[in-house]
Structures are given as C-alpha cells and as structure tokens.
Design brief:
There is one protein chain. The chain is an alpha/beta fold. The protein has 15 helices and 32 strands. Helix 14 packs parallel to helix 15. It starts with 11 loop residues before the first strand and ends with a strand.
Length: 716
C-alpha cells in the first residue's frame, strides 16, 4: 500500500509491557517472521528502550524491550504484519556536556530500518534539547514530526542474477542521479519518471549500452533528510548527501510505494542493469549523518548512542570534531558505528546485488583518533572482509580538512577519484597547462600509483562530476552562477579552471559555439582514451547545462535534471563519445592493465609508449621544459601488449598515435618513420581538416588544427 509522503501524523499512545518475548540480540534491526518480529537495537548506555508501533490513524503503542545483551536491547513482538510502521524511544542519562542525549520524548528511526516512509517536519519538536535552553532536555514529543520505519519482508526472485565482476580495465563509469536522469525523459511513462523503475527501464539500459557504459554510479540512494537550513530556504538536498538510514533505499525514488515496495523496485532495477551487462555502484555517505552538529535535530543516532557515534574534539565534552563540513564526523573506531557500516555494505551487496561503492570523503572514515591512518579499523575491516574485498571500492581520497587530502595513498584493492587528472586536463585544454604535466595523466598517473605496484585503473579519471560545472558549462563560463541556491553566490568552488571562450554563458555567436563544442569534444576524447578508469557525468555527452551553477545540490528541478530534447543537445559530442568508448572497448592497447615503462615488450620491438614531438621524433628531456610547445603525440604500441591473455598467450593489437594540440594555432606535424608502423587511418578527430577515415602513412606531414585531438590507428 502506498503512503502519501505529505501526510500529517496524528498521535496518541498507549504502552504494552506483556506482549514482548525475549527475542535475540545477534541481528540488529527488525526481522519479520510469521510467528514474531524480532527487534534488536544497539544502545549500550540506554537504561530503557521501547519499540513504538503505529496504526494507520497514527495511534502509537509502545512495547518495552526488557533484554539487554552486549550493548543490544532486544525483544520479539508476535503477530505483526509486513508493512507495520514503527519507531524507537530510548531513556538514559541527559548529560549533553559529556555527549549523552537520551530523551524519551523523541521518536527515533531504527538505524537498521530497511524501509522508511514519510518526511520530517522541521521544528523544535525534533530537537532533543530545549530550543530556548540548549542544556535542558526538550519535553516536546517528536512523533507527529517524524517519518516511520517499516517492517519488511521481501521474497524477490533474482532468477540467478549475481554481481557482474567486470574487470577494472574494462570498466567505464557513468555517474548519474536516479531522479534527475529520467525525470524529463519523454520515452519513459510519466508515472515512472524519476524512479528506480524508470531508471531500470529498457529505454535507459539501451541508451547506456549504445554509449558504451559498463557501470552506473548512483548518487546517494540510502534514505536521507534535507538539512534544516536548506529546508528553511524552501529547497531540498537533491543530491542526497545527508544520510539517516543506511540500509533503506530512498523512498521518494520508488514508483510503487513506500511500505517496502522501494526494496523490490530497487532490486528489479539492479537486475535489469545486470541483464544489460551494466554494473551498479552506489555513492555512499558514511562519514556523517543528517543529524548535523550538536545543536541539530535528533532523528536516530543522537538519541541512541551520541557519544559513540560521533567523534569528539577531545576525549571528554560535547564539542564535535568535524572534518566533513556537515556538523559531525562518524567515529569508525566505535564498535557500533563500524558494525553498522559493515552490516550496511554487506546488505547492499548480498541482498541488493550491487557491484561496488564510491565512498564520500573517505579520509574522514579512515581516521584513528584524529589522524588519517591507512591501517585504520575501517580500511582493515573492509579489506579483509570476504564479501566486500571482492566488489569495486572507490575512495574519494580527501575530506574537508587539509591533512585529509590523500590522493595516491589508499591501499589495494581501493581505487581513487583522481582530482589531479581533472585539474591537469582542464588546465591543458584551456591552454594553461604544459605537455609535461599532462603526459603523466594520459599514461595512467604513474607518479601516483606505479611506485607501489598499483595498476593504471587505480586512477578513476574524470573531468566533471556531480559537484562542479557540467562539461558544457566548463567551456561556457568563467565564474560560477549559484544565485538560485539562496546564498548570494557564496557557495560552490571558485577554483573551476574553466573558460567561457569569450562570452559568459550561452551565446548565438557561431564561432564561439563551434569552439566550445570542439573543446568539449577534446576533453571527452582525452578522458575516454587516457590510461586508467574513465568516469563520465550524466548528460555531459549531450551537452547538458546547469546554467553556470557549480553547486546544484539543492536544485531539484530543470537545472539538475537531464534534458533529453534534441533541440539544444550537442549530439555530435554524443557520437564522438560513443566512438571513443568503442575504440577503448575494442582495443586492449587503450585499456592496459600495466603501467607503460617506455621500453619494448619484446626484444627488438617498439617501445610500449613513446612521446612524439611535432617534428616526428621522440621528445627529449629539453623538449619537456619547452613552455611554448603546445603539441604532443602519444604513441601506444600493441605490437605486442605487455599483458598476457587469459591462457598466458602473447596478445597483439593495433598501435595508436594520438595527437593533442592545446594551442590556438594550427600546427605542422610529421608522422614518425620507423620499422613497425607504416600505414594508418584517422579513427577519431576533432580536427575538421583531418576527418575520420582519412589514410595516413609514415613520414606524412599534416596540419593539426588549433585546439584539437587526432587519433591515428595502425592499418595492417
């Protein structure tokens, strides 16, 4: 049964003491069976705990759990139906100075709830403290203002589905928002737009298959709540980086209802993606919760184990230690917090069949005390886990602090978002980066990952992400334009490394429009053909714009949603992206497992990688420091490859020569003459003077258009 999310809860309650069985403590959350539903809640310092059941009229019945084992309150209530609404209440010390905020007047969400329905009504009711007297406990009941947890039982038929385990070297990631990707899609039924069902439709999977995507990375789908300050502006946290229930799929993305139907719908979406050969990666936010700083609302953790869940600035006291910029930092050295994270991750893998995770602000999670620690409890526990160590693990290798920046430091099997790739690529194509800086990024960032034996795919290469300009805006704006966010354009990064090419924002000037589209094509082609793991942002391949907003986290509207109309789309960019990804997929020379070493793979053969000067010779040490040099050739040999095949056999592929010109002027280039490559053809080009299909030969002299990419493939 579907529940209206805007429903106002009526409230009254009664207490039942005799209908609770002892139950079991081993499995946290609500576990349904025909006989009874077992409830188990981690709250080691609570002195009493109640499960609060709600009927369809909002009447509350409280059941006290009498058993407390190893920090877990537990009990079983017989005869509950699937879909039963519930919450928790906890009693214990009120001592905010020492981080204890128990308050029975506050209805709490179960941290292990598998489904949540309803929304929060912001106000003083959801504060554990008295708004007028912060050190006094509030006596306002929060039940009418709070969502409800749902008792669930799902018997989804996976029909043999399992994780795809696509090799990293074959992976192409596509970052998207569940709602925003389909909300405006005219080929999807209106009632399914913006939902899990819409995203898992054949329309979407066919589009991504055609583009060449192998994995979708979903912005947060764990149930979240909009921050009070954002809600006060009449906005919402559209991105969802404000999690409150780590096992529950976000209910607003479900077309079929919120009483457990969101679980089934999410599973069907995953199953459909897997049938199309596409993995599902979740962007997960465990570094902080929606409860914010110590003066923020009490939704769940603050009322159950505040002192254990959140890091403190010192061993005693209520001052939170915040390296997330969101008011609190989850303490992953705490048993309860770490267990919740691990149980949640395993749940999404084993029960929901997802293929991996991208961890928001991973450095905040990898701290022992206040120090980033690559041997921390969080990393060690995941790396040895028999389930999690085999899925894709992507670190955002920084947090909101200076010492949290750890690009290049996370241990195997982790891979990392590589913002140095992003910055160097943006600089290069706006004419402010040198060939010396860009070469390492093109070749897999060996300066970051080769010294300790990690592969090029450890670098997740990206030019844009949800946070920042879209690709179109990157070539259309010099400055951010975030006025719609209600913060007088103060929010969002000022370090965009963007270029408007002469006019700020949209323009009808045909020359500027053509140059912008060529620059976007240059960035996209470089991304798709660089060594490493490419990540595209949804809509970039079509020229999606956010009108210059580089922090659209609160824009649940056309600013953020993908526009599927062809009217203003950059469809030539789509075709180029598709071609570049096809080349990558068809040619193992362009997605190699090993770092290049600049030496032959067999005696007497060509170097696996050689950098070519526009004069047709190899680059010298002096050339790398030529600040006027704007043209660089990258020769990648497939004759043979360094990596063996699946049976240890030698692998052979075509060789490639990729030319990059980031200067404004056309440049003369000479193709090298050697004994290995004599003939080739243009297979991808942003240079209008050298179209795809043009034949080339060793020693040929070509003119390379200013600000262009030219990809030549060996003809056998």
């Amino acid at each position: 049964m579907s529940l209206n999310r805007s429903r106002t809860w009526s409230w009254s309650h009664r207490e039942e003491r005799t209908s609770v069985w002892p139950g079991r403590h081993q499995f946290l959350g609500a576990r349904w069976s025909e006989e009874a539903t077992n409830f188990a809640v981690w709250s080691p310092e609570a002195t009493a705990l109640w499960v609060c059941l709600f009927d369809e009229d909002g009447v509350e019945t409280q059941h006290q759990l009498t058993e407390h084992t190893l920090g877990v309150w537990h009990g079983a209530i017989p005869g509950l139906p699937v879909g039963q609404l519930y919450g928790l209440r906890a009693e214990g010390p009120w001592d905010p100075v020492h981080g204890r905020r128990f308050n029975r007047h506050k209805l709490l969400l179960d941290p292990y709830a598998r489904a949540v329905t309803g929304t929060v009504t912001q106000g003083p009711e959801v504060l554990a403290h008295d708004a007028a007297r912060p050190h006094a406990a509030s006596t306002l009941d929060s039940a009418p203002a709070m969502p409800r947890c749902v008792v669930t039982h799902d018997e989804f038929d996976w029909d043999g589905d399992t994780q795809l385990r696509t090799r990293w070297r074959d992976t192409v990631i596509y970052e998207l928002h569940v709602k925003g990707f389909t909300k405006l899609h005219n080929e999807i039924p209106e009632d399914l737009r913006g939902t899990y069902a819409g995203l898992g439709s054949h329309t979407v999977t066919r589009y991504l298959q055609d583009l060449g995507v192998t994995a979708v990375e979903l912005l947060p789908v764990q149930h979240y709540i909009t921050e009070p300050g954002v809600a006060d502006l009449g906005l919402v946290n559209y991105w969802g980086y404000n999690t409150i229930a780590f096992l529950a799929p976000e209910a607003s993305y479900a077309a079929g209802g919120e009483r457990g139907q969101q679980i089934t719908e999410f599973k069907q979406m995953v199953k459909n993606f897997h049938a199309a050969g596409i993995e599902v990666i979740l962007d997960v936010v465990y570094n902080h919760t929606a409860e914010g700083g110590p003066d923020g609302p009490t939704y769940s953790f603050r009322g159950l184990d505040d002192i254990g869940m959140y890091k403190r600035a010192s061993s005693v006291g209520d001052a939170y230690w915040d390296v997330t910029g969101c008011g609190n930092t989850v303490d992953t050295t705490n048993l309860g917090a770490l267990r919740l994270i691990m149980d949640s991750l395993r749940y999404w893998v084993t029960e929901m069949h997802v293929d991996g995770f991208r961890f928001d602000l991973t450095s905040a999670l990898a701290r022992t005390g206040h120090e980033v620690d690559m041997h921390s409890a969080f990393l060690t526990t995941i790396n040895q886990d028999p389930v999690l160590r085999h899925v894709k693990l992507i670190a955002e290798p920084w947090d909101a602090s200076m010492d949290g920046y750890q690009v290049g430091s996370f241990p195997p099997p982790w891979v990392e978002w590589n913002d140095r790739y992003r910055d160097n690529l943006r600089d290069f194509w706006r004419g402010q980066g040198s060939v010396r800086e860009i070469a390492s990024r093109l070749a897999g960032s060996g300066d970051l990952y080769a010294d300790d034996g990690r592969s090029p795919y450890t670098s997740v290469n990206f030019v844009t992400a949800h946070d920042g300009f879209t690709l179109r805006d990157l070539v259309s704006y010099d400055s951010k334009h975030n006025e719609a966010n209600g913060e007088d354009n103060r929010d969002g990064s000022n370090d965009n490394r963007s270029w408007n090419h002469g006019v700020e924002g949209e323009t009808d000037d045909p020359e500027i429009k053509a140059l912008r589209q060529r620059q976007a094509a240059n960035l996209m082609a470089t991304l798709c053909l660089s060594s490493g793991s490419p990540m595209l942002t949804a809509g970039d391949e079509r020229g999606r714009t956010q009108r210059g907003n580089n922090n659209a986290y609160c824009q649940d509207n056309e600013i953020s949603w993908v526009d599927w109309r062809p009217d203003d789309a950059w469809l030539d960019l789509y075709d180029l992206t598709k071609t570049a990804l096809r080349l990558r997929r068809e040619h193992p020379a362009l997605r190699q497992r090993h770092h290049f070493v600049g030496a032959p793979t067999i005696e007497g053969g060509p170097k696996d990688l050689a950098w070519i000067h526009p004069e047709g010779r190899e680059m010298t040490e002096q050339d790398w420091y030529d600040t006027d040099l704007r043209v660089l050739g990258m020769f990648v040999s497939g004759d043979p490859l360094r990596s063996p095949g699946p049976h240890g056999e030698q692998q052979w592929d075509a060789s490639f020569l990729i030319w990059f010109n980031n200067g404004p002027d056309d440049a003369a280039i000479r193709l090298p003459e050697n004994q290995w490559v004599n003939h080739g053809e243009v297979v991808l080009s942003t240079d209008t003077g050298n179209p795809t299909g043009s034949p080339v030969g060793a020693g040929d002299e070509l003119t390379l258009q200013g600000r262009s990419v030219l990809v030549l493939r060996q003809s056998r």
